[in-house]
Amino acid sequence: MTRVWLPPLLFVLCGSALATELALDGSPVEATALLLVFLALAAVNSPLIFPRSVDNQEAQRRSAADGRPVVYWRPGCAYCVRLRLRLGRRARRLHWVDIRRDPAGAAVVRAANGGDETVPTVVVAGRPHTNPDPEWVRRQLSSAT
């Protein structure tokens, strides 16, 4: 669990140290701007921007019941962040599985990607799709409901 929060924590600590140095050198405006950039990087790399994850078994059960795709992801993945941000509010309707917290989810991803943990891997109707276009995922979600 601490591995998930390490990158955001490092962004906050490094940004704070650099901003403090700039502020002490007499550049409070630049210090504030730099700190905001580092805080934004920390937020984007944290699991907070993603909908609440469920375990693989629960995600598959829910997907079978409502036909919505399952998204396998991990914190710190730029492609996962891209997918999440481009989906907007619709992302909450998908079933998200954090492969760092769920070994069964990681196994599904490895099976779909020749042994690699390539994410995001989106499973629609039992078929995996690695790093699909967010617009395609949006269409799959629309057709599922």
Automatic annotation (TrEMBL):
Mind telling me which residue stretches traverse the membrane in this protein?
29-50
Signal peptide per UniProt: 1-19
Give all residue intervals belonging to the Glutaredoxin domain.
Answer: 70-127
**What residue spans carry the region label Disordered?**
126-145
Q: Which Gene3D superfamilies match?
A: Glutaredoxin
Keyword set includes Cytoplasm: no
Q: Supply the Pfam families for this chain.
A: Glutaredoxin (PF00462)
Q: Keywords assigned by UniProt?
A: Membrane, Signal, Transmembrane, Transmembrane helix
Q: What is this protein called?
A: Glutaredoxin domain-containing protein
Q: Which lineage?
A: Bacteria, Bacillati, Actinomycetota, Actinomycetes, Kitasatosporales
